[in-house]
Amino acid sequence: MAELPPLDPSAMLWSGPPGERAGRPLLVLLHGYGADEGDLFALAAHLPSAFTVCAVRAPLTPPFPSPGYSWYPIEGLESRDATHVTAAASALLEWIETETDAPAVGLLGFSQGAAVALQALRLAPERFAFVVDLSGYATPGPLPLDDDLARRRPPVFWGRGTNDDVIPPFLVAHTVEWLPAHVDLSGRVYPGLTHSVSEQELTDVRVFLEKQLEHLA
Asked: Where is the Phospholipase/carboxylesterase/thioesterase domain (predicted)?
């Protein structure tokens, strides 16, 4: 499996100082290709305040002239190698296991970040309370704990737009089939939405997160 550098703690954005994080559930935000940790962190003010929110920066730099950072390559043959998604999810897991002590952890990712979030859930089904997948997909190919995931069926919200022309149709079709077989799926397809997050989708995500807080309590 491809190896990545560890996540950079100095590049992470937190919703509160260390003294305010103890005993609170953690919501980790994973940005998309060509963005950075500030992209999704702008949503933190619209999410339930009971969570500690941490936005992390992906470890790779896309080829010039793409801006920002990426979780795995999307160029050429490398884009079809699922081990890159697994490597990114493993790097995320390593940081969570060694650097956080939250009583519960949820993941919220957009596009590439959403793919990494689902892959991390598959690598460690017992570690995550839930996943929010915005304009992302489930990576094709089996993983050793997929059967365990299907038994646990953790909550997953999947939101996507009808006009999203970034995620290839075959990946959307695979995700439509794969998610209901492995998780407790909820979500919505938003008419006219492109590869982005709408106000209605953000409202739906907040409702989903509030329900997860009720379960955690």
From this structure: 21-211
Residue 186 β-bridge partners = 157
pLDDT per position as a tens digit, 1-13:
456 888 999 999 9
**CA 119 to CA 195: how far, in whole Å?**
20
Query: And the tokens for 199?
Result: 């106000």
Q: Under a CB-based contact definition with an 8 Å cutoff, are residues 112 and 72 in contact?
A: yes
- Give the count of beta carbons closer than 10 Å to the beta carbon of residue 68: 18
pLDDT score, position 2: 54
Residue 115 to residues 85, 93, 146, 160, 172, Cα–Cα distance (Å): 7, 14, 15, 13, 11
Q: Which residue has the tokens 């790097």?
A: 91
Contact 138, 156 (CB under 8 A): no
Confirm if 150 and 168 have CB atoms less than 8 A apart: no
Give yes or no for residue 182 having a pLDDT over 80. Answer: yes
Say how many residues make up the chain. Answer: 217
* E runs forming strands in the chain: 13-14, 26-30, 52-56, 105-110, 130-134, 155-161, 184-190
